[in-house]
User: Fold these one by one.
Assistant:
Number 1:
Amino acid sequence: MAMSAAERSAPKTPLSFRLRGETARLLEQRAQEAGETQTALVERYVEEGLRTDTHPLVTFRDGTAGRRPCIVGTSLGVWQVIETIRQNGGSIAETADYLGKPVELIEAAARYYADFTDEIDRWTERANAFAQREEANWRRQQQLLG
């Protein structure tokens, strides 16, 4: 779940919660394992939980480019599904057929995109820039080796 610089620097609203002792212990342990503060971890869990309540077919996964929204039961990022929809002329049915996934999952990605367009567009831009850099690197390697 990539946040923009403006979102990261936005003022925070202080809240106070009481957690069961075991939950607090698990939170502290997970924050240490993840190298994050407990506050950052709680904020992520709350945000992702709220999004999942609205979009139950979307889950979140860590990857080399950060945490991203994905379609449940697949390794497909929402941004990948949206790109595939665009490449199929906006057709949900053709995208589902191409990806070999149920139409409901493709529709779920489209609904998520409608709510978080800017975030998914940033993911797409970063992924395309990465792919271009990797292709340029591969071409340079081929020139050196060939």
Note: The longest strand covers residues 58-63.
Number 2:
Amino acid sequence: MGKDRSIIIGSDHAAYELKEKIKTYLIDMGYSVEDAGTTSEASVNYVEYGKKVAAAVSNGHYLKGILLCGTGLGMSMTANRFSNVRAALCSDIFSAKMSRLHNDSNILVLGGRIVGDILAFALVQTWLDTEFEGGRHLDRIQSIEH
């Protein structure tokens, strides 16, 4: 089976600008991107958008998602409340890689006020390019849900 080239993305107002840049980056890489909002820099409740993305990943409609807010903390807390969601807040390349390799993260969370454009693109690329290693890590992940 080939790589799934669809992804859902969402942000609050604090990370709207970075979300838009990442969305363009993903489209340029050949991804089909569903934007769950927000649609401007007008103040919103991050939880609404975190829930939209997390629900879509939780129910299997999307295999992967990306969430952004000012720090990434609120989005990661919101997303990880959902079954089958493993949201990883990353601000360095090693964490982005390991979140996929060992933890099979299915939502990448970024802080729009923490990471700049160039680092964000590298985090997204690393996260998307890294496959889950499986093996002993699969048992650990399965134990999260049970």
Note: The helical segments are 16-28, 46-58, 73-79, 93-101, 117-129, 136-145.
